[in-house]
Every structure is written in structure tokens, then in C-alpha cells.
UniProtKB/TrEMBL annotation:
The keyword Transmembrane applies. Gene3D superfamilies: Phosphorylase Kinase, domain 1, Ribonuclease Inhibitor, Transferase(Phosphotransferase) domain 1. GO terms for cellular component: membrane. It comes from the Eukaryota. Residues 253-268 have a biased composition (Low complexity). This is Protein kinase domain-containing protein. The chain crosses the membrane at residues 217-239. ATP binds at residue 340.
């Protein structure tokens, strides 16, 4: 503070920021701490007419710092390499200052960074490669003097981008249709279709020609290897058909007996695995199952075999109308998986396989990917990494009843899940793959307590699940494409999750539907009565609670055509979270 204020700001005793007081217990101006008042989480010093020098090294000594905001001051200096020490930093706002110099290479070390705003400063030089920061959703760098090519960002995840009025040059990369020319205006050196300026052709170099020759060599070699594999496969099938029928039946019988024996033996060995044989026995169909497990690209599944699942101790976690869920322990408990068993599903095997492979190609850090799957006429199995910290439903409605789950954490869950769902809807829109069964029990928490969406794409949309007021929208739905209804049903499900976060109440209580109850309370103008009393007692902003409630009500609109799409919902929640992050804790 001594460096930032530089003696130009009148600081009285109420500011704190001295060596005789504690930043958390004594409520220093602009400082927010964790619920135990043990560590600093945010430093927000916006619009305080600070005219000194920014010292990132000092700021990053607070190792738990997640938000640093110096918006709209007159701070000078530069961002040093020490910014890399802020390992937990998620939000950095330094817009509207006089900060200069190059952006440090250590920015790429901020793996948790989500929002980055350096607009309206005097930064120069090239932007370092920060494409590995997979969770970045805001990048504002307009009105600086930055040069080089357009920053290498993960445009598929970005929600907000503005690099206008700089000195960037070269072609504009594929921004996935997310941003307009306004995000790039004021950079005369940029070219591309987005700014209606064709890029000059790149002359081929000798090095590139050599590279192409090598590439062609490997391509043709690959064709040769592939042809050899096909020939060997055909030969193998011919030899297999030449085996005597009696031998084949003997193998199948022995395989079936061995699988049954394995299941019952394991059941006797482990009390935990009391119910595990339910999926093990019924999934073995004439010995074919051992070769029917399809392992996807997740590293966890490498080397996984169907017989490993059959022999492993398993615990039945729960049953629902769509199937059962098991916890399976492999390698003496070293690896823990979750196996979802689906029965009586209307999707045929080929469509199921297509969906699983397409989902494997569409990855988002906040959507739990499948490790492997098994598909037969009778049933289908999905294998996931086991998430140890339970579901959002348990966190809100379990024994703790959400008491330790504060407003900032709930808003963070809403923002992360909303952004992930928006991404999946956009990527899988043409494939007509929505979530199909979005609810708080399908929002899980990993070891770091980060939320992720599970079971995406497993269920096919059913019209009776669309909303609580199905009859009022039935006529409209009769004329809507199935894919339209499924994505709109996801938005309804997300709106109900928002209501659970706001109210702390489950979807159904003593026969009362949560969405109907909220509508009735709001209609009678008792809106404040909707919110979880724990949030009010913790000092949550009533204005932002109301704003999130309005977003939820848009999502659960009885008419699906009037619901916003998930991109719109994600942007609304992102804006709301930005306001929350900027709010300072004035005494």
C-alpha cells in the first residue's frame, strides 16, 4: 500500500494496511479473507486514486490470493515475472492505469486464471503464449501498444475478448464464431475474413518443402501398415471360422462359468462388494463381453479390460429410474472408477456408440469424460473416474445443509457449470446431443472441490421432463424439432439448479415442487423469502441474489421458446460474477 498510494491518498485508521493490525480480523479496506479469517483471498482497490507503483512481488506473497483488482487508478510500473508466484490467482484486473512494459512469460504459469483485464494501459511488446490456461474466459487488452500476432488463446472456451486499438498484425485465427470484428478493430496490420481484409499468400520455403516430403513419406507408410493390418485381420477371422463348432461352444461355456465364478468368489471376499455382481454376471453374453469394452482416450482407461471390471470389488452407490451406479476399485484400491449401468434405454447400440465417441472428441475441463463403455442389446455400461467429494445435491441438502457452502462458492459453481454447458451445447448442437438429465446429483466435485458435469449425453430427452408446466407448452413442442426440446430442457434443468443454489431447498419437498413454489412466492411479492437464510446471514449481496434469481426464472420459463440459450445464460452469470469479484469489503 505504501508503494501504491505513494503518499497522495489520505489514509486514516479505518483503512488498516499497517503493521499493527491484521488484514482479516481488522477488515483492511479492499481485503477479503476466507471464512476462517486465516488467509487473504481478494485484494480489490478500485477507483481509489492510487498513483504509486504496482509491486506484484509483494502481492504474490499472499500465496492464497485469488483476486487482485486495481481498476481505474493511476498506478504506474510494470507486471514483473513474479506474477508466476500467484499460483491461485483467478482474476487479475489492472485496467485504467498507466502500467507499461512487456507482459512476462511467467503468465503461462497461472493455470487457474479465468479473467484477465489489462485494458487502457501502456503495455507493449508481444503477448506470451498462454494457450495452456484452459479455464481462461475473459481476455481484455484493448487500448494498449501490444504488437505481434493475435494472442494464442483457447478461443473455444473464451466468453469475452477485446484486443482492439493495439498494433497487432497478421491473420486473425479461427475464433469459433464467438467474436465479431469489434474485438479486433484498430489494428491496421490484422487481416482475414472477419475484418474483410484478405491476407497475403505465404511463399513456400525450402524447409517447408522438405517437411512436406517427410510428411508424405509417413502418410504413405501409414497406408502400407494399415493395409497389412487389414490383411492380418481378415486372415485371423478366416482361421477363427475354421475352428470346430464344438470347440467354440466349449470356450463360450467355460468363459461364462469362469465369469460367474469370479463374481461370486469376489463377493465372498469383500463385504463392500455385496451388490457388485449385479452388472458383472448379466453383462457376460456368451463370452463376447471380454472383447467388447471400448476404451476411450482418457489416460485412466489405458489397459483397462472388461474382465478387470468383473473381478474388481464394487459397491452399489445408488439406483434410479435410468439405471444403477457402482464404485469399482482396481489394483487393490489404487484406481477407483464409477460404473454407470443403463437399462431399458430407447437408443440403439449403434447410436449409443456414435454418441460416446463424439462425446470423447468434445472435451471441457468441467465436463467429466467417459473412460470406457460397453454396449449390448440388453444393457449399456459407462465407466468414469470416481469423484471423491460427492455431488452438489449432497453438499446443499446433506447433513451440513449447505451451511459451509457460501454465496461466493455457489455463484462460482453456477458460473463454471453454466460456461461448461454453453460450450457443450455449441459444440454438439449439430450432433443433437444435449445432456438430457441435468440435475444437482449430476454435478460432482473433484479432489480440488471444482465442480464438473457428469453423465453428459446419456439420456434422451423426454417431453414430460421439459418443465413443471408441461401442458402449457405441449402444443408448441409438438411442432419443435427433438433436438430443440432437449437443449431447452437442459436450460430448464440448469435453472432449477440455480434455484437450489439460491434457496438451499431440494427440488421436491413434501410433494411441493421447487419451481412452482418460487413462482408463487415471487408472484406474491415476497421475493426475499425465497433465499437461503444462511446466505442472508453471511452478508450476501441482496441485489446480486435477485439478479441470479431473475436468470433462473428466465431459464424455467414454461414456454421453451422464450428461454435464453446457454451462451446467453453463461454471459449473464459471468457478468454477475465479475461484479461480485470486484466488490470490496468496506467496513
Amino acid at each position: 500500500m505504501d508503494k501504491l498510494a505513494a503518499g497522495n491518498v489520505g489514509r486514516d485508521q479505518s483503512w488498516g494496511w499497517n503493521m499493527s493490525s491484521d488484514p482479516c480480523n481488522d477488515k483492511w479496506i479492499g481485503v477479503s479473507c476466507d471464512t476462517l479469517l486465516k488467509s487473504v483471498k481478494k485484494v480489490v482497490l478500485d477507483e481509489l486514486n492510487l498513483t504509486g507503483v504496482i509491486d506484484i512481488g509483494f502481492a504474490c506473497k499472499a500465496s492464497s490470493l485469488s483476486v487482485l483488482s486495481l481498476h481505474s487508478n493511476n498506478v504506474v510500473g510494470s507486471i514483473s515475472e513474479e506474477i508466476g508466484n500467484c499460483k491461485h490467482l483467478t482474476h487479475l484486473y489492472v485496467s485504467g492505469n498507466q502500467i507499461s512494459g512487456h507482459l512476462p512469460e511467467s503468465l503461462k504459469q497461472l493455470s487457474n486464471l479465468k479473467r484477465f483485464d489489462i485494458s487502457n494501459n501502456n503495455f507493449s511488446g508481444e503477448v506470451p503464449d498462454i494457450s495452456q490456461i484452459s479455464g481462461l474466459i475473459t481476455f481484455f487488452a484493448q487500448n494498449n501498444q501490444l504488437t505481434g500476432e493475435v494472442p494464442n488463446l483457447d478461443f473455444s472456451h473464451l466468453l469475452q475478448l477485446n484486443i482492439s486499438n493495439n498494433n497487432f498484425s497478421g491473420p486473425i485465427p479461427d475464433v469459433k464464431g464467438r467474436f465479431s470484428a469489434d474485438s479486433f478493430s484498430g489494428n491496421p496490420g490484422l487481416c482475414g475474413e472477419l475484418v474483410s481484409k484478405p491476407c497475403p499468400p505465404t511463399p513456400p520455403s525450402k524447409r517447408k518443402s522438405n517437411h512436406s516430403s517427410i510428411k508424405r513419406f509417413f502418410i504413405y507408410s501409414g497406408y502400407a501398415v494399415l493395409g497389412l493390418i487389414v490383411v492380418l485381420f481378415v486372415a485371423f477371422k478366416l482361421v477363427s471360422k475354421m475352428k470346430p463348432k464344438d470347440d467354440k461352444e466349449a470356450v463360450e461355456t467355460n468363459t461364462s462359468r469362469r465369469s460367474y465364478k469370479t463374481s461370486t468368489t469376489t463377493s465372498n471376499e469383500s463385504k463392500i462388494a455385496e451388490n457388485k455382481s449385479e452388472y458383472s454376471i448379466s453383462s457376460v453374453e456368451s463370452g463376447v463381453a471380454l472383447s467388447s469394452l471400448v476404451v476411450l482416450t482418457s489416460p485412466t482407461g489405458q489397459g483397462l479390460r472388461f474382465e478387470d471390471l468383473l473381478r474388481a470389488p464394487a459397491e452399489l452407490l445408488g439406483k434410479g429410474k435410468h439405471g444403477s451406479l457402482y464404485k469399482v476399485m482396481l489394483d487393490n484400491g489404487v484406481t477407483t472408477l464409477a460404473v454407470k449401468r443403463i437399462k431399458d434405454w430407447s437408443v440403439d447400440s449403434e447410436e449409443f456408440k456414435r454418441r460416446m465417441k463424439r462425446l470423447d472428441q468434445t472435451r471441457h475441463p468441467s465436463v467429466l469424460p467417459s473412460v470406457a463403455f460397453y454396449c449390448s442389446q440388453q444393457e449399456k455400461l459407462l465407466v468414469y473416474e470416481y469423484q471423491p467429494n460427492g455431488s452438489l445435491f449432497r453438499l446443499l441438502h446433506g447433513s451440513q445443509s449447505g451451511q459451509a457452502f457460501g454465496w461466493e462458492s455457489r455463484l462460482n459453481v453456477a458460473a463454471i457449470v453454466g460456461e461448461a454447458l454453453a460450450f457443450m451445447h455449441e459444440e454438439l448442437g449439430e450432433d443433437r446431443i444435449a445432456h438430457g438429465n441435468l440435475k444437482s446429483t449430476n454435478i460432482l466435485f473433484n479432489q480440488n472441490m471444482d465442480p464438473c458435469i457428469s453423465e453428459y449425453g446419456l439420456m434422451v430427452f423426454q417431453t414430460q421432463d421439459l418443465s413443471f408446466d408441461f401442458q402449457s407448452s405441449k402444443d408448441a413442442l409438438d411442432h419443435a424439432a427433438p433436438t430443440y426440446g432437449s437443449f431447452k430442457a437442459d436450460i430448464y434443468g440448469f435453472g432449477v439448479i440455480l434455484l437450489e443454489l439460491l434457496t438451499g431447498k431440494p427440488v421436491h419437498t413434501n410433494g411441493i415442487d421447487l419451481a412452482q413454489w418460487v413462482h408463487s412466492v415471487v408472484t406474491e411479492e415476497w421475493t426475499v423469502e425465497v433465499f437461503d437464510k444462511a446466505l442472508i446471514s453471511q452478508g450476501a449481496s441482496e441485489e446480486r441474489l435477485l439478479n441470479l434469481l431473475q436468470i433462473a426464472l428466465k431459464c424455467i420459463n414454461p414456454n421453451p421458446y422464450e428461454r435464453p440459450n446457454m451462451n446467453q445464460v453463461a454471459v449473464m452469470i459471468s457478468t454477475l460474477k465479475g461484479e461480485e469479484d470486484r466488490s470490496s469489503s468496506h467496513p
